[in-house]
Amino acid sequence: MYRALWLSPLRFIVSSSSSKLTPYVSRGRGLSGIDNGAGCSCSRSVTTMIGNEFIRCQDESKILQLQIVDALRSGERQGASALLFKLIQGNYSLSADDFHDILYYCARSPDPVFVMETYSVMCKKEISLDSRSLLFIVKSLCNGGHLDKASEFIHAVREDDRISPLLPIYNFFLGACARTRSVYHASKCLELMDQRRVGKNGITYVALLKLAVFQRNLSTVNDIWKHYVNHYNLDILSLRRFIWSFTRLGDLKSAYELLQHMVYLALRGEFFVKSNRGKLHSTRLYIPVPSKDETGSEKFAFGVTDRIVDCNSSSKVALPKGHNKILAIRVLRWSFNDVIHACGQSKNSELAEQLMLQMQNLGLLPSSHTYDGFIRAVAFPEGYEYGMTLLKVMQQQNLKPYDSTLATVAAYCSKALQVDLAEHLLDQISECSYSYPFNNLLAAYDSLDQPERAVRVLARMKELKLRPDMRTYELLFSLFGNVNAPYEEGNMLSQVDCCKRINAIEMDMMRNGFQHSPISRLNVLRALGAEGMVNEMIRHLQKAENLSAHSNMYLGTPTYNIVLHSLLEANETDMVINIFKRMKSCGCPADVATYNIMIDCCSLIHSYKSACALVSMMIRDGFSPKAVTFTALMKVITKYLITILKVCCHCFSRTCYK
């Protein structure tokens, strides 16, 4: 089905002053860049060698290739270049075969610069490339990050009846595009394959699926699936790749149905998988011949019932014996793990439990990776005990839990305020790249008002070289901003200590490249207000207002409420009124808490008229007075009546005196 391909002459000049690879394309008709490997198609003198002379030249060429590779391994590039020059100066005929070892090493290293130097030498000696040489060059360029140059080589390939199909070259290039997430180069390669009528095989579809998953494009995965089932028969290895794609994109339903179809094939003994150099390959031939009597949608349709294996059955089902049963079990376990992890992402505990039961019925032993996804699916903050039970089960099965598994259970324990369990689990973690389990524990200590225990958490994070995130700093301001115990008034010593703590946290936050968030700013203002540091609190508020003005945003209502409440506690009524006016002038809406604070302020200044006006504004803004509102209003009325009573008494006493 493949059309024959050939490569036009492509010359590269490697600049000695730059590492960039500059191509020069020659369009001469007398040269062919690729042949079938039998020799060179250009005109050059050919020396006929027989017997021992031919073997001697072959051995000498092989020895020089090995010496060049050894020189490259030891970092002696000048020596390797000298040996390469010696190789082409020999008095014997050379072909592309005499450079395979060099090009193969450059592909594995990778060493794109030396591979281009080798190719330049081959061009000077008018030595044609064969299919293997081209594959090694493309591999070296792709592995070295030069997709543009590799693409130029591939685009230089044209149709020629003498050349066999070069699908592995296209597949490797697409695989490199998938690894580097280069959608542009992949689309160009696919267009070229369509133009040249180059088919696809399983490796091609793997690369396309990876690109689709990177783009988060579920519709593309569905299109690839439809095209695949229309041209190929399904096996467990191909199903495993599609299951991986659907789970990464959150299509749990499709992934589950494909998993059940995989189990159906495995129970029938249709394994079709082998291992080669540590990689799994399908033993089926990929012959893209569409069936005449049924389409792909009829071969497999999502939602079929006759191929869904009963997950709720408690009876064990043994997989049939076969040559590749062990490999098939490995593939099945991988796919079960993918779907169980998808259940963990969507918190589908019911399906996760069904899949664990099905694994047991099939004789598939859960691994640590299996439990990692299963615990995410079934353990919730209110059911952290189940997570601890599963950790004990893993211990009984001699399975070491992943660090992510311990972190997940520790986070659930922290949310349930089981801080001792959470701290014990976090102490067992050897490596962690995310701070959320430690943040949850800090939040639990904040709720329990135990800042002294939070110090150990910070020390543990430092020991793991874990960088704090913004949530960490928000919690640190809440934990360590307040020096005194709750309901204790601040003094001069506590205020100095509070300023030192806040400044230290702010400096560390700036060193890690973070600016104040609304929550961290609010926590700082709350801490300063609790210590009675009015001037410092107003300074932080003004700084936040200036930053918000530059970003065309206003501070949140909770921030102003914290400041207003702290000023009211300090009997700074004039400042309360000024801040309220600034709040209204900048367009920040007031809420119920704001109006209650201001009505309380009216009770201090004995302004019954202002309190009534605030109640009117509150109702006009759509807020209904609450019990707290009426309590504050009664304070105002009581003090207003007391004032009136005092005036009446004074007037009455003066009248009596006269």
From TrEMBL:
<dbReference type="InterPro" id="IPR011990">
    <property type="entry name" value="TPR-like_helical_dom_sf"/>
</dbReference>
<keyword id="KW-0677">Repeat</keyword>
<feature type="repeat" description="PPR">
    <location>
        <begin position="556"/>
        <end position="590"/>
    </location>
</feature>
<dbReference type="Pfam" id="PF01535">
    <property type="entry name" value="PPR"/>
</dbReference>
<protein>
    <recommendedName>
        <fullName>Pentatricopeptide repeat-containing protein At1g76280</fullName>
    </recommendedName>
</protein>
<feature type="repeat" description="PPR">
    <location>
        <begin position="591"/>
        <end position="625"/>
    </location>
</feature>
<dbReference type="InterPro" id="IPR002885">
    <property type="entry name" value="PPR_rpt"/>
</dbReference>
<dbReference type="Pfam" id="PF13812">
    <property type="entry name" value="PPR_3"/>
</dbReference>
<dbReference type="Pfam" id="PF13041">
    <property type="entry name" value="PPR_2"/>
</dbReference>
<feature type="repeat" description="PPR">
    <location>
        <begin position="332"/>
        <end position="366"/>
    </location>
</feature>
